[in-house]
Amino acid sequence: MPDALIFDIQRFSIQDGPGIRTTVFMKGCPLACAWCHNPESQHGEAAVLTLEHRCLHCGACRDACPESTDLDLSETCTICGLCVEACPSGARRMVGRRYEVDGLIREFLRDGPFYEESGGGVTFSGGEPLGQVEFLLAALEAARAVGLHTAVDTCGFASWPDLLAVAKRTDLFLYDLKLVNDERHRRYTGVSNAMILNNLKALAWKHGNLWVRIPVIPGINDDDDSVHAAVEFLAPLPGVREVHLLPYHRAGEPKFPRLGRSYGLAGTGSLNPFRLGQMAQIFADAGKDAKVVR
Q1: Are 60 and 40 in contact (CB under 8 A)?
Q2: Residue 72: its pLDDT value, please?
Q3: Which element (helix H / strand E) includes 7?
């Protein structure tokens, strides 16, 4: 059975599908969204995250590191994890752990009664779960075999055969739509959206249960042109059951420097709640209800 690199398992989630759910966050993503709130998910390998506010500057990590020189540890790091084990304050954390399907199912079944009472289940997110598609398919089959409702949160940047194989094994898709304008999509995510839009259109006719989730980012996709383009694209698609507007938040900003990276949207303010209402109304006027999900 295949295994997968997973960086978090969130129990009692209520934002990743119906009911109470367990959300599995898988490593690796083909996009590099400027506003990403899980930047530790983007790279497909394990990583070491540093919490500067916990650091005692004791030097234990440097002493434990077999690659340590006078250079900063991040420049020579081989992700062996010895510095994480040596850190007395928990300032260094390993991001990414390998799981096999059976172990993951055992994690799920711990919360079986909560799923049953709430109509919940399990959601595979990331990162991009289709980046580890063999494991995803096996995990979906195993989850359904024990009677669990399954959902997959995807950016849609995947091959159609892989997406179709996943569609046969999942009850619900949470499909992320950032921008319909390709030039702006390239600028803020690093990739073209041609595959994403084509897959969304095909999936909406093939699979009857999609929730499209639009992260609303001030100054990037909250303008009228972007909103109307999304409405025009989504309105005729029969499988799109719900549209969720996700207001921008800065939860991911402090993670970037912990990973040795800079945050591209520093200084971006919160979205005006009135504007969110206007956007939802534009969808409603086109016959496609949208709700703000915080």
Answers
A1: no
A2: 60
A3: strand 3-13
Contacts of 220 (CB under 8 A, 6+ apart): 34, 35, 179, 184, 188, 226
Q: E strands along 46-132, which residues?
A: 47-50, 92-95, 97-100, 121-126
Query: Which of these CATH numbers, 3.40.1440.10, 3.20.20.70, 1.10.3720.10, 3.90.226.10, describes 3-43+100-292?
Result: 3.20.20.70
- Nearest-10 Cα torsion for 169, 247, 36, 228: 80
CA geometry: angle 29, 31, 36, nearest 5 deg: 90
Tens-place pLDDT, residues 204-219: 999 989 999 999 999 9
Q: Extract the runs of DSSP E, i.e. beta strands, from 86-171.
A: 92-95, 97-100, 121-126, 149-154
pLDDT score for 78:
78
Angle at 202 between CA 196 and CA 203, to 5 degrees: 85
- Residue listed under structure tokens 């709130």: 37
Which pLDDT tens digit goes with each residue over 41-62?
A: 888 777 777 888 888 889 888 8
What are the beta bridge partners of residue 6? 26, 97
For the segment 189-200, the average pLDDT, to the nearest whole number, is 98
77, 178, 279 from 17: Cα distances, Å: 37, 19, 22
Q: Closest by alpha carbon to 288, among 185, 192, 151, 177?
A: 177
Distances (CA, A) of 153 to 15, 128, 176, 177: 11, 8, 7, 11
* Beta-strand runs (E) in 33-165: 47-50, 92-95, 97-100, 121-126, 149-154
